[in-house]
Write a structure and sequence with these properties.
The complex is a heterodimer of chains A (276) and B (315).
Chain A lengths: L1 H9 L1 H23 L31 H37 L1 H14 L4 H12 L3 H28 L2 H9 L3 H9 L4 H24 L11 H9 L7 H28 L6
Helix pairs in contact in A: 1-11, 2-3, 2-11, 3-4, 3-6, 3-8, 3-9, 3-11, 4-6, 5-6, 6-9, 9-10, 9-11, 10-11
Chain B lengths: L2 H28 L4 H6 L5 H11 L5 H13 L13 H36 L4 H15 L2 H15 L15 H35 L2 H8 L4 H39 L4 H11 L2 H29 L7
Helix pairs in contact in B: 1-12, 5-6, 5-8, 5-10, 5-12, 6-8, 7-8, 7-10, 8-10, 9-10, 10-11, 10-12, 11-12
Classes of the chains: A mainly alpha (276), B mainly alpha (315).
């Protein structure tokens, strides 16, 4: 584990990714304590105040401090995207490994159906589910998880097919182990590397998807300081206060970049053979 | 490309459409406890609810409801919009044509920009140009469409006044105006596509340049230009076909946001309106048309790939 971390930190992508994520994690943990103002504190004299010593990143249409809203909003953006990815990845991984274990025609049938489900674009799938389940952050998380599962199933299955033919799996089958044992104890631990890499990169998609749902008005609801929602609200005032738009956009982009970098860094660190 | 492979690939496309149709129908009509209630809202009278339930056939078992709907859809009848009382099918197809104009333009722009950039990055691996290209690619895949769209509109329309911010003009009626209105949406979509294709192009070119046949071509004493264009590029371009086809799925999802922001009356916007007004026939038709477009594009891409790369034998 320590060795892996050292290898990760040696790569520029891994290093920048880890540093950025440490910053984001501290915003999630201590954001409300560190924020200079309360995120919903209204100041009518300070409406659309430009960035300066009073409001470092400026103020929005109600004079609310944008920096404080971003720091508190990290909590309602990043952890939810994380949970959605985790649930989606877990479900997808189990489908993928299970399909590879069953093999033959069953595997073919499962994967063809899986591919068919993927013909519905992720955002559209999420929108459909949210419209059925009802608007809100919690339902958006469920929707994103469902939208992610087929993609993860495909990635996991291709890795699990190799593992399926390994001697230790054959030995387990010969011993007469049951399917759950083979899937969870023999195969799943050995396909963790590609799952972890893919999920890390997918967290960035989840953050963007979640922000997009909020932007479209079906995810987090006002007055939450979720970043996508902040962009949606600031759009109406982009002539007076472009900083209201740029700050949350940059926050979304930085978080997404951080997870992308970490994913690429992990890919290199977990596959030492690939080095040049 | 054998006939058996061809027939199997077509059957797979049909299967995809069937699975999608079941899924869409289940999510919109079967999954809600009472579709009539969610359509009419909480203040609906019991009479209206009962009438709608009979109209939709909600009392019947799920498979019967699906069968009835699927039979109509098969003959091209997607039903009547609950919002506009117009037939849904023609409306959605007209919207799709406007979206396809946006999508095809974006793909053309992407190819023109991303392929040369990817190749240049590969040729200058590890140097400043390469790092710059990689950084831009990272930014491209890390910005959601609504952020790119808003920032581009802020820059090109609000600050510089080069382009109109929103609206749609048919290029058939007013070519110049049509192009000007399309520019911002196309640019937005292209940012993300360019990032994908560029990364792919870079790694493919790197792989191909390491291959034996490139070494052989160089050892034969062929000029570097011939090696690059006749040997390397041809092979590196192949996987781009697949990437573009897969990106069509992304594109179709992306148009929902982009058409909403730029007020383009395409299928994405039509779907968004249908979803917010809970117009069931429109939602079902829209999703099915989108997924079919995706499935058909991928079928064509697979065929093109099999045709271009004679080494691939599917049987």
């Amino acid at each position: 584990m320590t060795e892996l971390f050292i290898r990760l930190m040696r790569k520029p992508q891994g290093f920048v990714g880890v540093v950025l994520l440490a910053l984001i994690a501290s915003a999630c943990l201590f954001g409300p304590a560190l924020a200079p103002y309360a995120p919903e504190k209204i100041d009518f004299l300070g409406r659309f105040r430009a960035p300066g010593w009073q409001n470092w990143l400026g103020a929005d249409q109600f004079g609310r401090d944008i920096l404080s809203r971003l720091m508190v909003g990290a909590r309602s953006t990043v952890p939810l995207a994380f949970i959605a990815t985790f649930v989606g990845s877990a479900v997808g991984a189990i489908i993928g490994v299970g399909s590879a274990y069953l093999g033959g025609r069953t595997d073919e049938a499962i994967m063809r159906t899986n591919d068919a489900v993927m013909a519905i674009p992720g955002l559209l799938m999420a929108l459909l589910l949210v419209s059925t389940l009802g608007n809100g952050a919690g339902n958006a998380v469920i929707a994103i998880a469902v939208a992610f599962a087929p993609g993860m199933a495909r990635v996991t299955r291709s890795a699990a097919l190799n593992v399926r033919n390994q001697d230790y799996v054959k030995a387990a089958i010969a011993r007469g182990e049951g399917a759950p044992w083979i899937i969870f104890r023999e195969m799943l631990p050995n396909v963790m590397a590609p799952i972890v890499i893919e999920s890390t990169i997918r967290v960035s998609f989840a953050i963007m998807l979640f922000a997009t749902l909020s932007f479209l008005g079906v995810g987090a609801q006002p007055p939450a300081s979720e970043w996508g929602l902040m962009v949606a609200e600031a759009r109406q005032y982009m002539h007076q206060a472009p900083w209201g738009l740029i700050a949350p956009s940059a926050a979304i982009a930085l978080t997404a970049i951080a997870f992308n970098l970490l994913g690429d860094g992990l890919r290199d660190a977990l596959n030492p053979k690939d080095e040049q | 490309m054998t006939l058996v492979w061809f027939v199997r690939r077509l059957m797979l496309t049909v299967y995809t459409v069937i699975v999608v149709s079941m899924l869409v129908f289940a999510i919109t009509q079967i999954l809600p406890a009472d579709a009539a209630q969610s359509l009419l809202g909480e203040n609906a009278t019991p009479d209206a609810l009962a009438a709608l339930r009979t109209k939709l056939g909600l009392g019947d078992p799920a498979w019967l409801q699906y069968g009835r709907w699927a039979r109509h859809v098969f003959t091209g009848d997607f039903g009547i919009s609950m919002r506009t009382s117009q037939p849904v099918g023609p409306e959605m197809l007209a919207a799709l044509s406007r979206s396809l104009l946006l999508a095809v333009s974006a793909i053309l722009v992407t190819l023109a920009v991303a392929v040369p950039l990817g190749v240049v990055a590969a040729l200058r691996q590890g140097r400043l140009t390469d790092t710059g290209v990689s950084l831009i690619a990272y930014l491209g895949i890390s910005l959601p469409e609504f952020v790119t769209a808003t920032l581009l509109a802020l820059l090109l329309s609000d600050t510089l006044h080069w382009l109109p911010a929103t609206g749609y003009v048919s290029p058939l009626e007013d070519f110049g105006g049509g192009i000007r209105h399309l520019a911002l949406p196309v640019l937005t979509v292209s940012v993300i596509l360019v990032a994908h294709v560029m990364r792919m192009m870079r790694s493919e070119t790197l792989d191909v340049l390491k291959s034996d046949y490139i070494r052989a071509a160089r050892l034969k004493g062929l000029p570097e230009r011939t090696v690059l264009f006749r040997h390397a590029l041809r092979n590196a371009l192949l996987p781009v076909v697949t990437i573009i086809a897969l990106d069509v799925g992304y594109l179709l999802g992306g148009v929902i946001v982009i058409e909403e922001i730029f007020a383009i009356p395409g299928i994405g916007r039509a779907l968004m309106v249908a979803i917010t007004t809970r117009d069931l026939p429109s939602i079902q038709a829209g999703v099915l048309i989108m997924a079919t477009t995706y499935a058909v594009t991928n079928t064509f891409a697979d065929m093109a790939y099999a045709f271009l790369d004679r080494r691939i034998r599917y049987d």
